Amino acid sequence: MKRIGLLTSGGDCQALNAAMRGVVKALWYTLGPEEVEIYGFFQGYKGLIYSNYRKLEFSDFSGILTRGGTILGSSRMPFKLMREPDENGLDKVAAMKQNYYKLNLDCLVILGGNGTHKTANLLREEGLNIVTLPKTIDNDLWGTDMTFGFQSAVNIATNAIDCIHTTAASHGRVFIVEVMGHKVGWLTLNAGIAGGADIILIPEIPYDIDKIVTAINKRHERGSAFTILAVAEGAISKEDAALSKKDLLKKQEKSTYPSVSYEIADKIQKMTGLEIRVTVPGHTQRGGSPCPYDRVLASRLGTAAAELIMKGEYGYMVGIVNREVGKIPLEDVAGKLKMVSPDATIIKEAKLLGISFAD
Ligand code: F6P
User: Fold this and answer.
1) Helix 150-171 vs helix 292-311: crossing angle, to nearest 10
2) pTM of structure
3) Are 76 and 11 in contact (CB under 8 A)?
4) Is 208 known to be catalytic?
């Protein structure tokens, strides 16, 4: 008999349901339904802390391969607050352990991104059996080449750029499409290339506003009346990148712009007199049905997690390592970001396509 806990934590993304379905189907079909019990904790770690869970049936996992979001719900619970008691003095870590032992679980399967993995590793250090799956549209989890959710988000962000292309061309305007991705540029870089953006700004390559204007002017000289910028929500100017963390925070607190794209738009407008528009697809990038790539990836990783559980191998994240499904020790994953290297071949290739990074 295997007794498994399941939870999804942090910002949601596409294919979370597909991944859970993969875990559960593989266990059920291999061990038999009478040999597996699944408990779903609701709203991420909150469900584990506050005993909000339910025993799940096979039917709960039927028809969810294509469904976006998560059947368990999710929430953000900052890692730095995990060791602090809640407003009623409850020890959260002790409460999570208590629920784990109360249900006599063999393993807790956790689907999440960076913050989630720090807490997952904490629970491993506390002696719980943990297996994790890498979800995030940001693709910034260290240790796996790919996270599920990412390709679906690339599709949506690319579609936004595609739609902007036609209207930008009709009006001869400069358009900024702001893409999610938190502190990394994977999503913007991929959607930018796929959507034919002229300028791509990512956090890993701080931009020079003069270089942005030069790139726009060059396009005008070559007869292109419009320009499209794909700007990561975490894009940063060279001047701001040179500031200390404290000074940067102070500056950001004082800023009246809703986001980085509006600041860039304002500057371009003042420097060129051109008409600029900003489009922010925002959380649409995390929504809707997973693309086929993510359905396959999440299903594969789900079955890989089930295999680890059946072998009793705990303390790992399953992921894609050198194009194959593999396992990565949780202590190696926790607390590390996978960023775009400014020297990556994909950056060189994008530059050969004439894309400016304004660096
Ligand atoms: O990590 C996924 C993500 O969508 C990031 O791209 C974005 O910065 C963040 O979550 C938004 O978080 P929230 O849903 O809490 O606004």
Assistant:
1) 160
2) 0.97
3) yes
4) no
Could you tell me the two tokens for 79? Answer: 């890692």
* Nearest-angstrom CA–CA distance, 254 and 131: 42
Task: State the pairing for strand pair 276-279/53-56.
Answer: unpaired
CA atoms lying within 13 Å on the CB side of residue 266? 9
Quickly count: other Cβ atoms within 10 Å of residue 237's Cβ.
19
Maximum separation of any 2 CA atoms in the chain, in Å: 71
> Which secondary structure element, helix H or strand E, spans residue 265, and what is its range?
helix 260-272
Active-site hit among 138, 140, 198, 294? 138
pLDDT tens for 202-212 read 999 999 999 99
Answer yes or no: is the C-beta of 181 below 6 A from any ligand 1 atom. yes
290, two tokens: 């997973």
Ligand 1, pocket-test mutation among 116, 182, 338, most atoms within 8 A of CB: 182
| Nearest protein CA to atom 11 of ligand 1, as residue | 11
| pLDDT tens digits for range 125-180 | 999 999 999 999 999 999 999 999 999 999 999 999 999 999 999 998 999 999 99
Look up residue 48 and give its DSSP letter: H
Burial of 258 (0-12, 13-18, 19+ CB in 10 A): exposed
Burial 159-191 (b: 16+ CB within 10 A, else e): bbbeebbeebeeeebbbbbbbbbbebbbbbbbb
Which residue has its alpha carbon closest to ligand 1 atom 2?
11
Residue 162: the pLDDT is 97
Does the beta carbon of 135 sit less than 6 angstroms from any atom of ligand 1? no
CA Rg, the chain, in Å? 22
* 252-282 confidence digits (pLDDT tens): 999 999 999 999 999 999 999 999 999 999 9
Angle subtended at Cα 352 by Cα 214 and Cα 205, rounded to the nearest 5 degrees: 60
CA nearest neighbour of 334 among 141, 204, 148 = 141
d(CA 2, CA 228): 53
Amino acid identity of residue 78, one-letter, is: P
Grouping H, G, I as helix, E, B as strand and the rest as coil, residue 300 is helix
Q: Which of 138, 183, 283 to mutate to test the pocket of ligand 1 (most atoms within 8 A of CB)?
A: 138
